[in-house]
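Predict both folds.
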Amino acid sequence: MKFLKQKNMKMMLYGLSFLVLYGIFLFGWRVLALVVTANIFAILTEYLFVRNKKNNRVSMAAMVTATLLALSVPPTLPFWMIAVGAIVAITFGKMVFGGFGLNMFNPAMVGRNFIYVAFVNAMTVNWLQPFTKFPGGFSVWQKIGNLTSATPMIHFRDTGELTELSRLFFGLIPGSVGETSAFLIILIGIYLIWTKTAKWQPMLATLLSFSIFTLIFYGTNPLPLIFSGGLMFGIVFITTDPVSMPKNKTAIWVYGFLIGFLTVLIRKYSLFVEGFMFAIIITNSFMPIIEIAITKLQKKKRS
Protein backbone atom coordinates (compact mmCIF):
# COMPACT_ATOMS: atom_id res chain seq x y z
CA MET A 1 0.00 0.00 0.00
CA LYS A 2 1.36 3.41 -1.04
CA PHE A 3 0.30 6.85 0.13
CA LEU A 4 -0.11 10.04 -1.86
CA LYS A 5 1.91 12.66 0.00
CA GLN A 6 0.00 15.93 0.36
CA LYS A 7 1.59 18.88 2.16
CA ASN A 8 -1.69 20.51 3.22
CA MET A 9 -3.04 17.24 4.58
CA LYS A 10 0.18 16.68 6.50
CA MET A 11 -0.05 20.16 8.05
CA MET A 12 -3.68 19.50 8.98
CA LEU A 13 -2.70 16.25 10.68
CA TYR A 14 -0.02 18.08 12.66
CA GLY A 15 -2.67 20.49 13.92
CA LEU A 16 -5.17 17.75 14.72
CA SER A 17 -2.56 15.81 16.70
CA PHE A 18 -2.75 18.44 19.46
CA LEU A 19 -6.50 17.91 19.75
CA VAL A 20 -5.91 14.16 19.98
CA LEU A 21 -3.41 14.68 22.81
CA TYR A 22 -5.77 17.00 24.65
CA GLY A 23 -8.59 14.50 24.13
CA ILE A 24 -6.44 11.81 25.76
CA PHE A 25 -5.81 14.14 28.72
CA LEU A 26 -9.54 14.81 29.10
CA PHE A 27 -10.93 11.30 28.61
CA GLY A 28 -8.16 8.66 28.58
CA TRP A 29 -6.17 6.58 26.10
CA ARG A 30 -9.34 5.13 24.59
CA VAL A 31 -9.44 8.34 22.54
CA LEU A 32 -6.28 7.31 20.71
CA ALA A 33 -7.77 3.88 20.04
CA LEU A 34 -10.82 5.56 18.47
CA VAL A 35 -8.56 7.63 16.21
CA VAL A 36 -6.48 4.61 15.21
CA THR A 37 -9.58 2.49 14.50
CA ALA A 38 -11.09 5.20 12.31
CA ASN A 39 -7.82 5.59 10.39
CA ILE A 40 -7.40 1.85 9.80
CA PHE A 41 -10.89 1.46 8.33
CA ALA A 42 -10.74 4.68 6.33
CA ILE A 43 -7.39 3.76 4.76
CA LEU A 44 -8.48 0.18 4.01
CA THR A 45 -11.75 1.38 2.46
CA GLU A 46 -10.00 3.84 0.16
CA TYR A 47 -7.39 1.22 -0.74
CA LEU A 48 -10.12 -1.21 -1.84
CA PHE A 49 -11.40 1.44 -4.26
CA VAL A 50 -8.02 2.44 -5.73
CA ARG A 51 -6.06 -0.83 -5.61
CA ASN A 52 -6.74 -1.74 -9.26
CA LYS A 53 -6.26 1.76 -10.64
CA LYS A 54 -3.13 3.03 -12.33
CA ASN A 55 -2.68 5.61 -9.58
CA ASN A 56 -3.36 3.26 -6.69
CA ARG A 57 -2.03 5.39 -3.86
CA VAL A 58 -4.20 6.15 -0.83
CA SER A 59 -4.47 9.90 -0.22
CA MET A 60 -3.43 11.40 3.11
CA ALA A 61 -6.85 13.05 3.04
CA ALA A 62 -8.25 9.69 4.19
CA MET A 63 -6.27 10.08 7.42
CA VAL A 64 -7.56 13.62 7.88
CA THR A 65 -11.13 12.42 7.33
CA ALA A 66 -10.72 9.58 9.83
CA THR A 67 -9.10 11.79 12.47
CA LEU A 68 -11.75 14.50 12.10
CA LEU A 69 -14.46 11.86 12.39
CA ALA A 70 -12.94 10.36 15.55
CA LEU A 71 -12.58 13.81 17.11
CA SER A 72 -16.22 14.64 16.38
CA VAL A 73 -17.77 11.74 18.32
CA PRO A 74 -18.20 11.00 22.06
CA PRO A 75 -15.20 9.31 23.73
CA THR A 76 -17.44 6.39 24.73
CA LEU A 77 -18.53 5.50 21.17
CA PRO A 78 -18.11 1.73 20.50
CA PHE A 79 -15.20 0.91 18.20
CA TRP A 80 -17.37 -0.91 15.67
CA MET A 81 -19.50 2.22 15.25
CA ILE A 82 -16.51 4.44 14.48
CA ALA A 83 -15.36 1.76 12.01
CA VAL A 84 -18.75 1.85 10.25
CA GLY A 85 -18.64 5.65 10.26
CA ALA A 86 -15.19 5.67 8.65
CA ILE A 87 -16.30 3.24 5.93
CA VAL A 88 -19.39 5.37 5.17
CA ALA A 89 -17.33 8.58 5.20
CA ILE A 90 -14.87 7.33 2.59
CA THR A 91 -17.37 5.37 0.48
CA PHE A 92 -20.32 7.76 0.34
CA GLY A 93 -18.57 11.01 1.20
CA LYS A 94 -15.70 10.63 -1.24
CA MET A 95 -15.28 7.60 -3.48
CA VAL A 96 -18.79 7.62 -5.00
CA PHE A 97 -17.92 11.05 -6.42
CA GLY A 98 -14.74 9.73 -8.02
CA GLY A 99 -12.21 10.00 -5.21
CA PHE A 100 -9.99 12.74 -3.83
CA GLY A 101 -10.71 16.23 -5.10
CA LEU A 102 -14.12 15.38 -6.58
CA ASN A 103 -16.38 15.13 -3.53
CA MET A 104 -19.04 17.80 -2.93
CA PHE A 105 -19.47 17.01 0.78
CA ASN A 106 -16.95 16.88 3.60
CA PRO A 107 -16.47 13.11 4.08
CA ALA A 108 -15.97 13.36 7.85
CA MET A 109 -19.34 15.08 8.23
CA VAL A 110 -21.00 12.46 6.02
CA GLY A 111 -19.66 9.81 8.39
CA ARG A 112 -20.67 11.72 11.52
CA ASN A 113 -24.17 12.39 10.24
CA PHE A 114 -24.60 8.70 9.47
CA ILE A 115 -23.45 7.65 12.95
CA TYR A 116 -25.68 10.31 14.54
CA VAL A 117 -28.80 9.18 12.68
CA ALA A 118 -28.12 5.42 12.81
CA PHE A 119 -26.83 5.18 16.39
CA VAL A 120 -28.50 8.13 18.05
CA ASN A 121 -28.32 6.84 21.64
CA ALA A 122 -24.57 6.26 21.47
CA MET A 123 -24.14 9.80 20.14
CA THR A 124 -26.46 11.69 22.49
CA VAL A 125 -27.30 9.93 25.77
CA ASN A 126 -24.21 9.56 27.95
CA TRP A 127 -21.26 11.95 28.16
CA LEU A 128 -18.12 11.66 30.25
CA GLN A 129 -17.11 14.42 32.63
CA PRO A 130 -13.49 15.24 31.66
CA PHE A 131 -10.40 15.16 33.82
CA THR A 132 -9.30 18.62 34.92
CA LYS A 133 -5.97 17.96 36.63
CA PHE A 134 -2.71 16.44 35.37
CA PRO A 135 -1.97 13.63 34.57
CA GLY A 136 -5.68 13.24 33.83
CA GLY A 137 -6.43 10.70 31.13
CA PHE A 138 -2.74 10.04 30.45
CA SER A 139 -2.82 7.64 33.41
CA VAL A 140 -5.95 5.64 32.49
CA TRP A 141 -7.51 3.80 29.55
CA GLN A 142 -10.88 5.48 29.99
CA LYS A 143 -12.43 7.76 32.58
CA ILE A 144 -14.89 5.70 34.60
CA GLY A 145 -18.12 7.04 36.08
CA ASN A 146 -19.28 10.64 36.33
CA LEU A 147 -21.55 10.22 33.32
CA THR A 148 -23.88 13.06 32.46
CA SER A 149 -26.70 13.41 29.97
CA ALA A 150 -26.03 17.12 29.44
CA THR A 151 -23.44 18.82 27.29
CA PRO A 152 -23.41 22.66 27.41
CA MET A 153 -25.73 22.77 24.38
CA ILE A 154 -28.20 20.28 25.89
CA HIS A 155 -28.10 22.19 29.19
CA PHE A 156 -28.81 25.46 27.38
CA ARG A 157 -31.71 23.94 25.43
CA ASP A 158 -33.30 22.44 28.55
CA THR A 159 -32.75 25.29 31.02
CA GLY A 160 -31.81 28.39 29.05
CA GLU A 161 -28.68 28.69 31.19
CA LEU A 162 -25.28 29.25 29.58
CA THR A 163 -22.18 27.37 30.78
CA GLU A 164 -19.39 29.39 32.37
CA LEU A 165 -17.27 30.91 29.59
CA SER A 166 -13.90 29.88 31.08
CA ARG A 167 -14.94 26.21 31.18
CA LEU A 168 -16.06 26.39 27.56
CA PHE A 169 -12.89 28.18 26.49
CA PHE A 170 -10.49 25.63 27.97
CA GLY A 171 -12.60 22.56 27.27
CA LEU A 172 -13.34 21.42 30.81
CA ILE A 173 -16.78 20.21 29.76
CA PRO A 174 -18.43 17.01 28.55
CA GLY A 175 -18.66 16.70 24.79
CA SER A 176 -17.17 15.07 21.73
CA VAL A 177 -13.45 14.34 21.85
CA GLY A 178 -12.10 17.27 19.86
CA GLU A 179 -14.79 19.93 20.12
CA THR A 180 -14.43 20.95 23.76
CA SER A 181 -11.46 23.34 23.91
CA ALA A 182 -12.12 26.57 22.00
CA PHE A 183 -8.72 27.88 23.11
CA LEU A 184 -6.81 25.01 21.52
CA ILE A 185 -8.96 25.07 18.36
CA ILE A 186 -8.30 28.82 17.94
CA LEU A 187 -4.54 28.28 18.29
CA ILE A 188 -4.62 25.50 15.69
CA GLY A 189 -6.76 27.71 13.44
CA ILE A 190 -4.13 30.47 13.61
CA TYR A 191 -1.44 27.90 12.77
CA LEU A 192 -3.42 26.65 9.75
CA ILE A 193 -3.96 30.19 8.46
CA TRP A 194 -0.31 31.16 9.06
CA THR A 195 0.94 28.09 7.17
CA LYS A 196 -1.64 28.76 4.40
CA THR A 197 -3.15 25.35 5.00
CA ALA A 198 -6.61 26.86 5.49
CA LYS A 199 -8.35 30.03 4.34
CA TRP A 200 -9.55 32.55 6.92
CA GLN A 201 -12.51 33.80 4.84
CA PRO A 202 -14.90 30.85 5.45
CA MET A 203 -14.00 30.88 9.15
CA LEU A 204 -14.78 34.58 9.53
CA ALA A 205 -17.91 34.45 7.37
CA THR A 206 -19.39 31.59 9.41
CA LEU A 207 -18.44 33.21 12.71
CA LEU A 208 -19.97 36.58 11.79
CA SER A 209 -23.14 35.00 10.42
CA PHE A 210 -23.60 32.81 13.49
CA SER A 211 -23.03 35.77 15.83
CA ILE A 212 -25.52 38.01 14.01
CA PHE A 213 -28.27 35.40 13.87
CA THR A 214 -27.67 34.34 17.49
CA LEU A 215 -28.35 37.93 18.52
CA ILE A 216 -31.47 37.99 16.33
CA PHE A 217 -32.93 34.61 17.38
CA TYR A 218 -31.73 34.36 20.99
CA GLY A 219 -31.04 37.96 21.98
CA THR A 220 -28.02 36.86 23.99
CA ASN A 221 -24.24 37.09 23.96
CA PRO A 222 -23.17 34.77 21.10
CA LEU A 223 -19.76 33.91 22.60
CA PRO A 224 -20.88 31.07 24.94
CA LEU A 225 -22.88 29.52 22.08
CA ILE A 226 -19.92 29.87 19.71
CA PHE A 227 -17.79 27.95 22.21
CA SER A 228 -20.51 25.33 22.87
CA GLY A 229 -20.96 22.20 20.80
CA GLY A 230 -19.02 21.55 17.62
CA LEU A 231 -19.23 25.01 16.05
CA MET A 232 -15.61 26.10 16.62
CA PHE A 233 -14.37 22.67 15.56
CA GLY A 234 -16.47 22.92 12.41
CA ILE A 235 -15.48 26.51 11.61
CA VAL A 236 -11.76 25.75 11.72
CA PHE A 237 -11.59 22.22 10.29
CA ILE A 238 -14.72 21.65 8.20
CA THR A 239 -15.70 24.93 6.54
CA THR A 240 -12.11 25.26 5.30
CA ASP A 241 -12.11 21.93 3.45
CA PRO A 242 -10.49 22.97 0.14
CA VAL A 243 -12.43 20.40 -1.89
CA SER A 244 -16.02 20.89 -0.71
CA MET A 245 -15.95 24.66 -0.21
CA PRO A 246 -16.54 27.03 -3.18
CA LYS A 247 -13.65 28.46 -5.20
CA ASN A 248 -15.22 31.82 -6.07
CA LYS A 249 -14.28 34.49 -3.48
CA THR A 250 -17.79 35.93 -3.23
CA ALA A 251 -19.29 32.44 -3.02
CA ILE A 252 -17.03 31.66 -0.05
CA TRP A 253 -18.65 34.49 1.93
CA VAL A 254 -22.13 33.30 0.93
CA TYR A 255 -21.09 29.78 1.94
CA GLY A 256 -20.02 30.89 5.41
CA PHE A 257 -23.13 33.06 5.80
CA LEU A 258 -25.42 30.11 5.02
CA ILE A 259 -23.60 27.75 7.39
CA GLY A 260 -23.84 30.23 10.27
CA PHE A 261 -27.50 31.00 9.60
CA LEU A 262 -28.54 27.35 9.25
CA THR A 263 -26.62 26.33 12.38
CA VAL A 264 -28.56 28.87 14.46
CA LEU A 265 -31.85 27.92 12.78
CA ILE A 266 -31.39 24.19 13.42
CA ARG A 267 -30.25 24.74 17.01
CA LYS A 268 -33.24 26.98 17.69
CA TYR A 269 -36.12 25.14 16.02
CA SER A 270 -35.18 21.47 15.58
CA LEU A 271 -34.73 18.52 17.92
CA PHE A 272 -30.99 18.52 17.14
CA VAL A 273 -29.04 20.64 19.62
CA GLU A 274 -25.94 20.55 17.45
CA GLY A 275 -26.84 22.19 14.17
CA PHE A 276 -23.46 22.55 12.48
CA MET A 277 -23.13 19.05 11.01
CA PHE A 278 -26.49 19.36 9.25
CA ALA A 279 -25.87 22.97 8.25
CA ILE A 280 -22.63 22.12 6.42
CA ILE A 281 -24.23 19.22 4.51
CA ILE A 282 -27.23 21.34 3.46
CA THR A 283 -24.96 24.21 2.39
CA ASN A 284 -22.68 21.87 0.42
CA SER A 285 -25.77 20.57 -1.41
CA PHE A 286 -26.73 24.00 -2.74
CA MET A 287 -23.35 25.70 -3.13
CA PRO A 288 -22.54 24.38 -6.65
CA ILE A 289 -25.72 26.01 -8.00
CA ILE A 290 -25.17 29.18 -5.97
CA GLU A 291 -21.54 29.43 -7.08
CA ILE A 292 -22.51 29.03 -10.75
CA ALA A 293 -25.13 31.78 -10.36
CA ILE A 294 -22.65 34.12 -8.65
CA THR A 295 -20.01 33.48 -11.33
CA LYS A 296 -22.52 34.21 -14.13
CA LEU A 297 -23.63 37.45 -12.46
CA GLN A 298 -20.03 38.57 -12.10
CA LYS A 299 -19.34 37.83 -15.78
CA LYS A 300 -22.41 39.84 -16.80
CA LYS A 301 -21.23 42.82 -14.76
CA ARG A 302 -17.80 42.71 -16.41
CA SER A 303 -19.23 42.49 -19.94
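Second protein follows, with its predicted C-alpha coordinates after the sequence.
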Amino acid sequence: MYAVMFEKAPYPFDHPLNALVLEVFRLNGALIASGDALVRPLGLTSARWQVMGSVAQGRGGFSVAQLARNMGLTRQSVQRIVDELVDDGIFELADNPHHKRAKLVRLTEKGEALFAEATARWLPHAEDLASVLAPGELARLTELLAQLRARLEQGPISGGGR
Protein backbone atom coordinates (compact mmCIF):
# COMPACT_ATOMS: atom_id res chain seq x y z
CA MET A 1 0.00 0.00 0.00
CA TYR A 2 2.70 2.51 0.94
CA ALA A 3 4.81 1.68 -2.12
CA VAL A 4 1.91 2.61 -4.38
CA MET A 5 1.44 5.91 -2.53
CA PHE A 6 5.11 6.77 -2.92
CA GLU A 7 5.09 5.92 -6.62
CA LYS A 8 2.16 8.27 -7.25
CA ALA A 9 3.37 11.12 -5.05
CA PRO A 10 5.79 13.50 -6.78
CA TYR A 11 9.22 13.72 -5.26
CA PRO A 12 9.36 17.12 -3.56
CA PHE A 13 12.43 18.21 -5.52
CA ASP A 14 11.16 17.26 -8.99
CA HIS A 15 9.63 20.64 -9.81
CA PRO A 16 11.85 22.70 -12.15
CA LEU A 17 11.57 25.79 -9.92
CA ASN A 18 13.26 23.97 -7.03
CA ALA A 19 16.72 24.25 -8.60
CA LEU A 20 16.27 28.02 -8.79
CA VAL A 21 14.97 28.26 -5.23
CA LEU A 22 17.91 26.25 -3.87
CA GLU A 23 20.36 28.38 -5.87
CA VAL A 24 18.77 31.58 -4.52
CA PHE A 25 19.12 30.21 -0.97
CA ARG A 26 22.79 29.39 -1.64
CA LEU A 27 23.36 32.81 -3.21
CA ASN A 28 21.76 34.51 -0.21
CA GLY A 29 24.04 32.58 2.15
CA ALA A 30 27.10 33.39 0.06
CA LEU A 31 26.17 37.09 -0.11
CA ILE A 32 25.72 37.25 3.66
CA ALA A 33 29.04 35.49 4.33
CA SER A 34 30.85 37.66 1.78
CA GLY A 35 29.20 40.82 3.10
CA ASP A 36 30.08 39.94 6.69
CA ALA A 37 33.73 39.46 5.72
CA LEU A 38 33.72 42.69 3.72
CA VAL A 39 32.31 44.96 6.44
CA ARG A 40 33.59 43.17 9.57
CA PRO A 41 36.70 45.44 9.66
CA LEU A 42 34.29 48.39 9.89
CA GLY A 43 32.51 46.87 12.90
CA LEU A 44 29.44 45.98 10.84
CA THR A 45 27.52 42.87 9.86
CA SER A 46 25.65 42.21 6.64
CA ALA A 47 22.38 42.76 8.51
CA ARG A 48 23.45 46.17 9.80
CA TRP A 49 24.90 47.11 6.42
CA GLN A 50 21.65 46.08 4.70
CA VAL A 51 19.58 48.33 6.97
CA MET A 52 22.08 51.17 6.50
CA GLY A 53 21.70 50.77 2.74
CA SER A 54 17.93 50.96 2.95
CA VAL A 55 18.15 54.10 5.11
CA ALA A 56 20.62 55.66 2.66
CA GLN A 57 18.40 54.75 -0.29
CA GLY A 58 15.42 56.39 1.41
CA ARG A 59 17.49 59.49 2.18
CA GLY A 60 16.22 59.58 5.74
CA GLY A 61 12.59 59.58 4.76
CA PHE A 62 11.58 56.10 5.97
CA SER A 63 10.18 54.88 9.26
CA VAL A 64 11.18 51.48 10.64
CA ALA A 65 7.98 49.94 9.25
CA GLN A 66 8.69 51.35 5.78
CA LEU A 67 12.28 50.11 5.91
CA ALA A 68 11.08 46.64 6.88
CA ARG A 69 8.55 46.54 4.02
CA ASN A 70 11.15 47.72 1.51
CA MET A 71 13.59 45.02 2.62
CA GLY A 72 11.06 42.23 3.03
CA LEU A 73 11.92 41.81 6.71
CA THR A 74 9.88 41.94 9.89
CA ARG A 75 9.46 45.28 11.60
CA GLN A 76 10.81 43.78 14.82
CA SER A 77 14.09 42.63 13.27
CA VAL A 78 14.65 46.01 11.63
CA GLN A 79 13.71 47.82 14.86
CA ARG A 80 16.34 45.82 16.77
CA ILE A 81 19.06 46.80 14.30
CA VAL A 82 17.91 50.43 14.18
CA ASP A 83 18.02 50.61 17.99
CA GLU A 84 21.55 49.19 18.01
CA LEU A 85 22.73 51.64 15.35
CA VAL A 86 21.13 54.57 17.17
CA ASP A 87 23.01 53.49 20.30
CA ASP A 88 26.23 53.33 18.24
CA GLY A 89 25.70 56.85 16.87
CA ILE A 90 25.24 55.61 13.29
CA PHE A 91 21.52 56.42 13.04
CA GLU A 92 19.39 59.15 14.50
CA LEU A 93 15.62 59.36 14.73
CA ALA A 94 13.80 62.42 13.43
CA ASP A 95 10.23 63.64 13.74
CA ASN A 96 7.91 62.37 11.04
CA PRO A 97 5.53 65.06 9.73
CA HIS A 98 3.08 62.33 8.66
CA HIS A 99 3.02 60.28 11.86
CA LYS A 100 3.67 61.38 15.44
CA ARG A 101 4.97 58.06 16.76
CA ALA A 102 6.73 56.58 13.72
CA LYS A 103 10.07 58.39 13.69
CA LEU A 104 12.14 58.68 10.52
CA VAL A 105 15.50 56.88 10.52
CA ARG A 106 18.49 58.88 9.29
CA LEU A 107 22.21 58.33 8.99
CA THR A 108 24.33 60.54 11.22
CA GLU A 109 27.58 62.02 9.91
CA LYS A 110 29.34 59.02 11.43
CA GLY A 111 26.83 56.72 9.70
CA GLU A 112 27.27 58.44 6.34
CA ALA A 113 31.05 58.07 6.56
CA LEU A 114 30.75 54.42 7.56
CA PHE A 115 28.28 53.68 4.77
CA ALA A 116 30.54 55.44 2.25
CA GLU A 117 33.46 53.24 3.37
CA ALA A 118 31.35 50.08 3.12
CA THR A 119 30.20 51.13 -0.36
CA ALA A 120 33.79 51.78 -1.46
CA ARG A 121 34.71 48.28 -0.28
CA TRP A 122 31.67 46.77 -2.05
CA LEU A 123 32.02 48.35 -5.50
CA PRO A 124 35.02 46.24 -6.67
CA HIS A 125 33.19 43.11 -5.52
CA ALA A 126 30.02 44.20 -7.33
CA GLU A 127 31.98 44.77 -10.54
CA ASP A 128 33.63 41.36 -10.22
CA LEU A 129 30.31 39.59 -9.61
CA ALA A 130 28.59 41.41 -12.47
CA SER A 131 31.44 40.50 -14.83
CA VAL A 132 30.32 36.84 -14.96
CA LEU A 133 27.11 37.92 -16.74
CA ALA A 134 26.80 39.02 -20.35
CA PRO A 135 25.59 42.57 -21.05
CA GLY A 136 21.87 42.81 -20.36
CA GLU A 137 21.73 39.59 -18.32
CA LEU A 138 21.96 41.36 -14.97
CA ALA A 139 18.97 43.59 -15.72
CA ARG A 140 16.98 40.63 -17.07
CA LEU A 141 17.86 38.45 -14.08
CA THR A 142 16.75 41.25 -11.75
CA GLU A 143 13.44 41.54 -13.63
CA LEU A 144 12.81 37.79 -13.44
CA LEU A 145 13.53 37.58 -9.72
CA ALA A 146 11.28 40.60 -9.12
CA GLN A 147 8.46 38.85 -10.99
CA LEU A 148 8.76 35.78 -8.76
CA ARG A 149 8.87 37.93 -5.62
CA ALA A 150 5.83 39.92 -6.75
CA ARG A 151 3.86 36.71 -7.29
CA LEU A 152 4.73 35.49 -3.80
CA GLU A 153 3.71 38.84 -2.33
CA GLN A 154 0.24 38.54 -3.89
CA GLY A 155 -0.66 36.09 -1.16
CA PRO A 156 -1.47 32.42 -0.86
CA ILE A 157 -1.45 30.38 -4.02
CA SER A 158 -4.77 28.63 -4.64
CA GLY A 159 -4.69 24.90 -4.05
CA GLY A 160 -1.24 25.09 -2.47
CA GLY A 161 -2.24 24.72 1.16
CA ARG A 162 -4.01 22.13 3.22
